[in-house]
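Aim 2 progress update. The chain analyzed this quarter is reproduced below.
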Amino acid sequence: MTFKLANIKKVEWEVSTNCNAQCPQCPRNDYGGETISTLPLINVTLEQAQASLTTEFINQLEEIYFCGTYGDPCMNKDLIKIAKWIKSVNPSIIVSAHTNGGIRSTSFWKEAALYIDWIGFGIDGLEDTNHLYRKGTFWNRIIQNARAYIDAGGTAIWDFIVFKHNEHQVEQARSLSQELGFKEFRVKYTSRFFNKSHEVIIKWPVKNRKGEIESYLEIPEKKEYQNIIYESTDNVVKEYGSIKKFFSQTEVNCFSKKANQIYISADGTVFPCGWLQDRMYGIEAEQHSDKQILEQMWDEIGGKDLANIYKTTIENIVEGKWFSRLDSSFNSGIRLERCGAICGQLNFIGSQNKDVNLKQPLRKV
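Predicted structure tokens:
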């Protein structure tokens, strides 16, 4: 099965690489310190959005999800304008987003409820702990904004990443989410303690803007909140010798292809998913072989412009040389480690959710 434009039903769209927070495990900064100098700071404009996606394509979609790898969509002043335009083209489409919730006024969130059907709020703790990961955000403002969105008719979801410092607050946060009117409370069993080489970092450093380590993040102590992936990697090393060898041999079953979705980065580059985009910028990512392989692939097909929605039509990207080259790499030739990590048998990202079964036998291809 190859990628077909007519099959695409969902688009994840990074409309901003700007962010008000400095989360220590985000690739946009130096472990919670300064924003990396190589990251282009971009806000997609309404005019760019309208020039990029045709009305025909929007009408075939079931959902557009404003999220992204490097930024918070609510940093984009045109976000609501873009959402409103999408709804005017396809009134039945679901428009959704994910945010830390710590920006904009309550009037913004009230208006957002008119055009953004549901929003996931990344709130990792209560007033005394949320800022330990969501650095630079303010609890009272987040709750005020979430309440404004909910009261205006928006559907809100509370996403809670569990760390050692907040694991004692999970159930209290769940109760609070119900009191505030959140539709759902989702516990995230983090796999973020892997670096870009997929080595486990037991104590993840948190830096200030001077580059000094000021604290550490740690994996939850309670077994019930620990991601099973950490134990699974031990078995992989025993069988394959290393995680790297596993990624080069595991069967890759592309989730985006199965789910009929694509990802559009703020600079216009189109990927099957955002987990490939996160190989483009970052202290560790820029030194990783995956970035070199991606650049090599673009050279092979005739340049990165053939992957960019501002330079090439969406149809020629999805059904042309770029996605075809990626497709051919999944289970043969030079492979991206990221594909093995995300869509191989260990499923690093899916394992953050409760319903993922990681106990299937490992198969070599």
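The beta strands are 10-13, 63-66, 94-99, 118-122, 155-161, 184-188, 203-207, 213-218, 261-264, 270-271. The radius of gyration is 20 Å. These observations will guide the mutagenesis experiments scheduled for the next reporting period.
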